[in-house]
């Protein structure tokens, strides 16, 4: 068994940290605002991310006010690697602040899924510290560093249509121009080049199709793109759910998290919302995003 353990100190009292870990309106400021939490032993706490495409659920197993929280995983990522794991938060006064010991343990393997979870927690633990010390956290989506040198945008949407319908909107020229680019030239075959054109001041994006599982997953490698997109890749993953399709979008390989990265994140959110709107209402918002000058 392996664990994710993080020890750090925050400039806030144990009472203040306790509130940030147990009160819904506080959790919303550093982790996610889509949640259901009652700080009582035996209750189920649920946290939802990326338009409900990533849902985790814990049983509150132990509570010792201002000192200790213990959760047992009841529902985790669809990959199943959280099954049987537990999360412990231990708080201890440290000078004018609090020492926090975080432990997510009982993983069966230290594999790629474990590394993803470790990076995920590190992002949100930093968000917790920032929220407690500055009043501003970074809840919601996160930038995942796969190898310590590159970062990714990960977003999700649940769309109320079946996966085949989503796949068509992602791979058919006539549909792509209803929610994304002004022009599209795309053949969903391995090794082909896909080109998406936008009116000025935006330009042209060109990708090579490097992975393809029709109806389920595809990955594009950037070939002709702006300089800060160089070496990046885009992955679309579809999963059927009762309410339609979970779409998990990843844009991976950024060298740094800076203003360009944040602008790209904002643009992709705009177009993912456009895709959802197009498929559910028939009306998307293709073309150059409003924030591109």
UniProtKB/TrEMBL annotation:
<feature type="domain" description="Activator of Hsp90 ATPase homologue 1/2-like C-terminal">
    <location>
        <begin position="12"/>
        <end position="133"/>
    </location>
</feature>
<protein>
    <recommendedName>
        <fullName>Activator of Hsp90 ATPase homologue 1/2-like C-terminal domain-containing protein</fullName>
    </recommendedName>
</protein>
<dbReference type="Pfam" id="PF08327">
    <property type="entry name" value="AHSA1"/>
</dbReference>
<feature type="domain" description="Activator of Hsp90 ATPase homologue 1/2-like C-terminal">
    <location>
        <begin position="161"/>
        <end position="280"/>
    </location>
</feature>
<comment type="similarity">
    <text>Belongs to the AHA1 family.</text>
</comment>
<dbReference type="InterPro" id="IPR013538">
    <property type="entry name" value="ASHA1/2-like_C"/>
</dbReference>
<dbReference type="InterPro" id="IPR023393">
    <property type="entry name" value="START-like_dom_sf"/>
</dbReference>
């Amino acid at each position: 068994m392996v664990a994710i353990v993080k020890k750090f100190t925050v400039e806030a009292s144990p009472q203040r940290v306790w509130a940030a870990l147990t009160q819904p309106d506080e959790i919303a400021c550093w982790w996610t605002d889509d949640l259901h939490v009652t700080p009582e032993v035996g209750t189920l706490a649920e946290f939802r991310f990326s338009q409900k495409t990533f849902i985790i659920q814990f049983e509150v197993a132990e509570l010792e006010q201002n000192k200790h929280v213990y959760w047992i995983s009841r529902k985790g990522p669809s990959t199943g690697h959280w099954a049987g794991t537990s999360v412990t938060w231990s708080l201890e006064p440290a000078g004018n602040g609090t020492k926090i010991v975080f432990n997510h343990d009982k993983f069966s393997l230290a594999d790629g899924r474990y590394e993803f979870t470790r990076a995920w927690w590190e992002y949100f633990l930093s968000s917790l510290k920032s929220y407690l010390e500055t009043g501003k956290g970074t809840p919601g989506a996160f930038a995942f560093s796969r190898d310590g040198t590159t970062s990714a945008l990960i977003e999700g949407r649940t769309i109320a249509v079946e996966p085949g319908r989503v796949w068509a909107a992602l791979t058919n020229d006539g549909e792509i121009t209803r929610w994304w680019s002004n022009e599209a030239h795309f053949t969903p075959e391995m090794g082909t080049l896909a080109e998406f054109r936008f009116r000025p001041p935006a330009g042209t994006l060109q990708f090579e199709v490097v992975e393809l599982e029709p109806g389920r997953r595809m990955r594009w490698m950037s070939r002709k793109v702006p300089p800060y997109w160089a070496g990046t890749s885009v992955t679309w993953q579809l999963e059927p759910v009762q309410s339609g399709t979970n779409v998990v979008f990843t844009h991976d390989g950024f060298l740094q998290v800076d203003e360009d990265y944040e602008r790209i994140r904002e643009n992709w959110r705009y177009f993912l919302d456009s895709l959802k709107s197009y498929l559910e209402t028939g009306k998307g918002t293709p073309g150059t995003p409003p924030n591109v000058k």
